[in-house]
Specification:
The complex is a heterodimer of chains A (594) and B (688).
Chain A (H helix, E strand, L loop, with lengths): L2 H29 L7 H15 L9 H24 L16 H12 L9 H4 L2 H31 L9 H26 L10 E14 L17 E11 L5 H9 L20 H25 L3 H28 L2 H5 L15 H14 L14 H12 L10 H20 L5 E2 L2 E2 L2 H26 L2 H5 L5 H16 L14 H30 L16 H35 L3
Antiparallel strand pairs in A: 1-2, 3-4
Helix pairs in contact in A: 1-9, 1-12, 2-7, 3-4, 3-6, 3-18, 4-18, 6-7, 6-8, 6-18, 7-8, 8-9, 9-10, 9-12, 10-12, 10-13, 10-19, 12-13, 13-17, 13-19, 14-15, 14-19, 15-17, 15-18, 17-18, 17-19
Chain B lengths: L13 H13 L3 H4 L3 H21 L7 H38 L5 E5 L8 E5 L8 E4 L9 E11 L1 H4 L5 E4 L6 E2 L4 E4 L2 E5 L7 H10 L7 H35 L7 H11 L2 H20 L2 E3 L2 H9 L2 E5 L5 E12 L5 H12 L5 H14 L10 E3 L7 E6 L2 E6 L1 H11 L7 H11 L3 E7 L2 E12 L3 H10 L3 E5 L4 H11 L3 E3 L4 H13 L4 E5 L5 H6 L2 E5 L4 H6 L2 E3 L6 H39 L17 H25 L8 H34 L1
Helix pairs in contact in B: 1-4, 3-4, 3-8, 4-6, 4-9, 4-21, 7-8, 8-20, 8-21, 9-20, 9-21, 10-20, 11-12, 20-21, 20-22, 21-22
The chains are: A mainly alpha (594), B alpha+beta (688).
């Protein structure tokens, strides 16, 4: 790492850590219905929304009603987006006259944006109109994030409340998340992005002649869109000469801010945050990384305040930071060492394939770990082009269950489910019925925590297994061998964990991935969500057990480290065989000079 | 006290090993084994490998028959070791139950129509007695069933149940009316009303519990099982996932063979948390058994576990914290008299006082001043009475008295003395304020001084409370004393809190209050008036000498009637949980080494470069897989002693304890299989 890399890294974490406390306590106030500095402006809006929608804001919900409201709302979101995608050609703001989505792709995309996954089996600028991007995808970016935050808040209330079945009002939590938190921050961030050159317009795409014509090898695709391969399994390519380019335009800035802030990650353009109109400068790059980590990080502090002990929040954050720092360190090292096969060709040093020169190594690595540690999935670097072990880092971060900061809301609640498992085992080890935050952990909580943390992993194991013996799934791989296996595994890991980034080589717009992917995203989002709300209900009804000397303190470093170890062990034991057949073999093959 | 029926029985005792072996084979029956889902899966895996072995004999399998055969044998052994561990734990209990049963030779009873001595009785077998029947029990008769004494008093030998050979008094009314079936009346006769039908008596329940037949899984055990089942399921999927991945990899690499069923099954069994699943039932059973060795019967496993969670302990002062009787600790003279003079007078006044307090005065005078005195034959003894509130003797012209301050003052005033020492009042107040009882002593009409009578706190009790405190358990003393006395004793014994002038409803209220605050409350009691509070407490320990209502309200019964046993019960409760937690961590940590043994071995034909992962340098793929399977199996019997004994419990703060156990069972769990698997691999190398 050079001085510039160090500067970026340190600056990012200093700013992030400095913001966590103020934003975290602000969010706690918002969710507890206290007045904030924004109330004079936003409270009337909030009340107006309730009046229009007929929401009684003081009416509390039990976990069943809360979960039903959440599911109903998400179903409506899905239906709305699916309709927009299927009728895009009839709707306004479509200067490029883009056609409607196929039903399989519309299904996949609608589920993808409703579940906060933002897996994109399409290329934004080639498939989605401005109307789709704004009224469909951007709206979903806000409310799918708000859904996650509402669920997390319900779980926190489960811990902090005693002997009640009430968890708050879903509609109120949803509205407040959007109105007080997501919208204001997005607004400010979008303005900063525009100032740096991110575009915001409705003009048709611009065609400009190239100063110097260029040519490239384009992989040939069959009629289904899968890459054609020759007898040896290598992709067939043809040489294309390019003299002019079409430059896509659009309302990018307004979507860009919430794309990171809501850990959505669905790019306006196919190149996502590597595209200069989405992420033009190192400054915007740092801002985007900050936005990705901001809410998931701050929610740990909100959690601490709401359960009455901010150190509980710091311990959770500590575990997350530890995993993030280790991942970043390893990624930096393996990418700095580069690829020995490329080095033989005379290009030594850092592996820069797939990276943007304007971000450099640290700017790319930080983005990669932030986007995969959270369930964001925006990319400024092609993860497919990382060295094998380098690529294993984002993959592993996803496979751990999106808890390294994690998705907005979902990161915290999944982490808390891990904490319950960690508390359970450690509680037994010190000879007590395990308790966390004063709540006894019993059979019900065990089932629900396990469902929360293992659903995604189970889905990945089953679906990736099916994929490897399904011809259509295998033929979608651009690269044969171990790397192809990594691509498919990464794809399902990304969808089941609601991340949405991809190992680019895979052509995902085929029925197999569209449909099974939809299933993976749905299960990966709603099974944990419902499990968490059920658990919140069960926890809220319990009485509070005051801590004593015999209680394991969960707000100190040893517990944070133990929690981290539990996460790593669960992840490693579940995915070691698959990783050894993918990235590890690939790495060893690379070292072997093949 | 002479003890014990429950002598420790070694697990290597042949009397236990042999039946355990047959029992463990019976337990292989899938209809029984499914209660342990993880081991049930291992049994299915064993069946699968058996089938592949038969197939490889016929040449339908590409792996050598010796390999699939050996894997199959060791998988079967894995299941067998687990059922054996359970049978062994049960075996110890059964051996004890058998010795209890011996005391239950078929007894006859003398059934009465009316609760009157001298009436006619009919002789019936014990099995014909029903609740409510009245029976006459005379000297040398065995009491035919559990009941309450309704008339008379008798000396009863309860050694069959308690192991305590000194007979106890059982009498009608009061707190000592309960009798237990199977005990014998030594002297006198009593009439007993039967309170339990045959098969439901205390002894029956005890036998059932000890045998483990009535054992139900505790909530914590179920929660752990949930975790183990989930892990097993994940590992099942991991292994299922390897198959298609390897099929693809064979195509991609253009060499090798997909991973075979035998190897996948072997990997699954190695990864599944078999170590803890195999030992889980044994840990619970052994815990109950360990308590029984301490002469404590837990009426459910839940009660023991709850004991491990207790954070408030309500202890009766009398008999638990103090010896129960006040003792003289010093003589304090007043009015210029000297100590020895006072001691002599106190001794004289107490010569005929046979109460423990009186005896303690005599003892103190002897110890401290070497004073001794024969009982004078011409003495006139003045007994204590509620009116005079003093006692003493008159010898010739001299009269010696001791009693409450105002009684003595009025006594000497009546004798005509008006000179009351000025320092008396202050001294009496000071002693009373310190929680002790001042007894004023007079000789004729002189007031000589004060005997300081104190409740003596049991030696070493402070240390035990300190231990409890370090475990996070708060101790509360319950006493009928006034708050002043209670406070003084509480301070001396170093309990955290006390409840003075406690009435039954106040005990109940106190327990409810603590429970509302989220505390787990344990209580010891023996009297009928303790019963409501016992029923409310989370862990209720009744003394075996206690009344029937108290025993029924309790969930743990202490046969020795020693209230400090609660500490042992807490310890065993914690040990059970810790043993489970530690073995779970150990079991899961083991998987790391197993992966490093099996993954390179199973993938070697496809990707030879994965040999790098074979960090143990195991000789061959077959030997590597076999070593992992064998290690996975033999670790179970190796850990049986630990499961039965429980991991050692040392009171220390939770965080330290966790780190300590993580270092042993977590880090140890990672390292041990690397060593073990390598060693087994070397041994296989010598054989093959």
């Amino acid at each position: 790492m050079n001085a510039y890399d160090w500067l970026q890294t340190i600056l990012l974490f200093v700013v992030l850590l400095a913001l966590i406390k103020p934003l975290g306590s602000f969010m706690a106030k918002v969710y507890q219905g206290e007045r904030t500095f924004m109330s004079p402006v936003l409270a009337p809006c909030e009340n107006l929304i309730y009046r229009i929608c007929g929401v009684k804001k003081d009416e509390e919900m039990g976990w069943q009603r809360y979960a039903l409201a959440m599911l109903f709302f998400n179903l409506a979101l899905f239906a709305a987006l699916f309709t927009i995608l299927m009728s895009q050609h009839l709707l306004p703001l479509n200067p490029q006259k883009l056609p409607a989505f196929s039903w399989q792709l519309a299904l996949n995309t609608a589920i993808s944006f409703t579940t906060n996954t933002n897996w994109q089996a399409y290329a934004g600028e080639q498939a989605a109109s401005y109307f789709t991007q704004m009224a469909g995808l951007t709206v979903h970016n806000f409310v799918s994030a708000a859904t996650g935050m509402a669920i997390a808040i319900a779980l926190i209330r489960g811990f902090s409340r005693r002997k009640t079945s009430m968890l708050g009002n879903f509609w109120v939590d949803l509205t407040r998340s959007t109105l007080y938190i997501l919208l204001p921050i997005s607004l400010v961030a979008a303005l900063v992005l525009v100032s740096q050159g991110v575009i915001q317009n409705f003009t048709p795409y611009k065609t400009v002649p190239l100063v110097q014509s260029t040519s490239y090898d384009k992989p040939k695709l069959d009629d289904k869109g899968s890459p054609l391969k020759d007898a040896k399994g290598n992709p067939v390519t043809e040489n294309v000469i390019v003299k002019e380019v079409s430059i896509p335009m659009g309302p990018v800035a307004s979507q860009e801010a919430i794309k990171e802030l809501g850990t959505n990650g669905g790019g306006f353009f196919n190149a996502n945050s590597a595209h200069p109109f989405e992420n033009p400068t190192p400054l915007t790059n740092m801002l985007e990384i900050l936005l990705i980590l901001l809410i998931p990080g701050s929610l740990t502090y909100t959690f601490g305040i709401m359960v009455g002990n901010t150190r509980q929040g710091w311990a959770i954050l500590g575990g997350m930071l530890l995993l993030l720092a280790v991942s970043f360190g390893v990624l930096q090292i393996v990418e700095t060492n580069g690829n020995p096969l490329v080095a033989e060709l005379g290009i030594r040093g850092v592996n820069m394939e797939g990276k943007e020169v304007r971000f450099g190594l640290a700017g790319s690595s930080l983005f990669a770990v932030a986007t995969t540690g959270t369930s964001c999935g925006a990319v400024n670097t092609m993860h497919d082009s990382l060295t094998p072990l380098g690529g294993m880092i984002p993959l592993s971060l996803i496979l751990l269950g999106e808890i390294v900061f994690g998705g907005v809301g979902s990161g915290l609640y999944t982490m808390l489910a891990f904490a319950i498992i960690a508390v359970f085992v450690s509680g037994l080890m010190i000879g007590r019925t395990p308790e966390y935050l004063g709540k006894k952990i019993e059979v019900r909580e065990m089932w629900l925590s396990i469902l929360t943390i293992l659903t995604a992993g189970v889905v990945v194991l089953i679906l990736s297994g099916i994929a490897m013996i399904t011809p259509q799934a295998v033929s979608s791989m651009a690269n044969p061998g171990a790397h192809g296996l990594s691509e498919v595994f990464y794809g399902f890991a990304s969808m089941a964990n609601n991340n949405g980034s991809a190992f680019a080589g895979l052509n995902a717009n085929v029925n197999f991935y569209n449909i099974l992917g939809s299933l993976a995203m749905t299960l990966g989002r709603y099974v944990p969500a419902i499990a968490v709300l059920t658990m919140a209900g069960s926890l809220a009804e319990k009485k509070y057990v005051p801590p004593s000397l015999g209680t394991l303190p969960t707000d100190k470093a040893p517990f944070a480290i133990w929690l981290t170890l539990v996460i790593i062990i669960v992840g490693a034991l579940t995915f070691f065989p698959a990783l050894s057949l993918g990235p590890i073999v690939e790495h060893l093959t690379m070292l072997g000079g093949k | 006290m002479s003890k014990h029926t429950a002598e420790p029985i070694s697990i290597f005792d042949l009397r236990i090993m042999k039946p355990a072996l047959t029992e463990s084979i019976k337990k292989l029956d899938p209809r029984i084994l499914w209660r342990n889902p993880v081991m049930f899966c291992v049994e299915i895996a064993s069946v699968i490998t058996l089938i592949t072995f038969i197939m490889s004999l016929t040449g339908a399998n590409r792996e050598p028959a010796w390999f699939t055969g050996t894997v199959s044998i060791w998988l079967w052994l894995t299941v067998l070791f687990s059922t054996f561990a359970e049978a062994l734990a049960e075996g110890r209990g059964k051996a004890r139950a058998a010795s209890l049963r011996k005391s239950r030779t078929d007894v006859t009873a003398k059934r009465l129509d009316k609760p009157e001595f001298g009436g006619n009785y009919t002789t019936v077998g014990a099995s014909q007695l029903r609740k409510g029947d009245l029976i006459l029990v005379e000297a040398n008769d065995m009491i035919a069933g559990d009941g309450d004494v309704v008339a008379g008093a008798a000396l009863v030998n309860e050694s069959a149940v308690t192991g305590e050979s000194a007979p106890v008094v059982r009498e009608s009314g009061g707190d000592r009316s309960a009798v237990t079936g199977g005990t014998t009346v030594i002297a006198n006769a009593i009439i007993v009303r039967i309170t339990a039908n045959p098969g439901e008596t205390f002894l029956d329940r005890m036998i059932g519990l000890i045998e483990g037949a009535k054992r139900r899984k505790t909530p914590n055990e179920i929660a752990l099982e949930v975790l183990l089942i989930a892990l097993t399921l994940v590992f099942l999927l991991v292994c299922a996932n390897i198959s298609p991945l390897s099929i693809y990899s064979v195509k991609a690499a253009g060499q090798g063979t997909p991973v075979s069923l035998t190897i996948l099954v072997a990997l699954f069994v190695c990864l599944a948390p078999t170590t803890i699943a195999a030992l889980l039932p044994a840990i619970g059973i052994a815990g109950m058994d360990r308590l029984f060795q301490k002469n404590v019967i837990a009426l459910s496993g839940r009660a023991i576990e709850a004991a491990g969670d207790v954070n408030v302990l309500l202890l009766d002062k009398t008999g638990t914290i103090t010896h129960g009787n006040r003792e003289a600790v010093s003589f304090v003279p007043v009015g210029g008299h000297n100590e020895k003079e006072l001691a002599l007078a106190a001794l004289s006044a107490s010569l005929f006082d046979e109460t423990p307090e009186g005896r303690s005065v005599v003892a103190l005078a002897q110890q401290k001043y070497g004073l001794g005195m024969e009982k004078p034959l011409d003495a006139e003894v003045v007994e204590f009475s509620a009116e005079t509130r003093l006692s003493g003797i008159n010898i010739g012209a001299s009269c010696f008295r001791k009693g409450a301050s105002d009684s003595i003052v009025s006594f000497v005033t009546k004798l005509g003395c008006t000179a009351i020492p000025e320092d008396l009042r202050g001294l009496v107040d000071r002693i009373a304020r310190a929680g002790a009882t001042p007894l004023v002593v007079s000789r004729d009409c002189d007031i000589l001084g004060v005997i300081n009578l104190k409740d003596i706190v049991k030696a070493g009790i402070q240390e035990r409370f300190l231990q409890l405190r370090s475990m996070g358990i708060k101790t509360v003393m319950i006493t009928g004393d006034n708050p002043l006395t209670a406070a003084a004793i509480a301070a001396e014994a170093q309990v955290d809190d006390f409840l003075a002038q406690a009435k039954p409803e106040e005990k109940l209220r106190l327990i409810r209050e603590y429970q509302e605050g989220g505390f787990m409350v344990a209580m010891t009691g023996d009297g009928t008036n303790d019963a409501p509070a016992l029923a409310q407490a989370d862990v209720a320990v009744a003394m075996n000498t206690g009344t029937q209502p108290a025993r029924e309200a309790a969930n743990i019964i202490d046969l020795d009637s020693n209230p400090t046993k609660l500490l042992d019960i807490v310890e065993v409760g914690k040990q059970i949980l810790m043993t489970r937690g530690n073995l779970t961590t150990f079991s899961i940590s083991n998987d790391v080494a197993k992966y490093f043994a099996i993954i390179p071995a199973m993938m070697l034909s496809i990707y030879p470069q994965l040999e790098v992962l074979n960090i143990m340098h195991l000789a061959s793929p077959f030997s590597a897989i076999l070593s992992a399977v064998i290690f996975n199996a033999i670790i179970i019997p190796m850990l049986v002693p630990l499961a039965l004994k429980g991991t050692r419990f040392r009171p220390m703060p939770a965080e330290k304890l966790l780190i300590h156990n993580l270092l042993i069972y977590g880090v140890g769990g990672i390292i041990a299989p690397f060593v073990g698997i390598k060693a087994i691999d070397l041994m296989i190398g010598m054989v093959v």
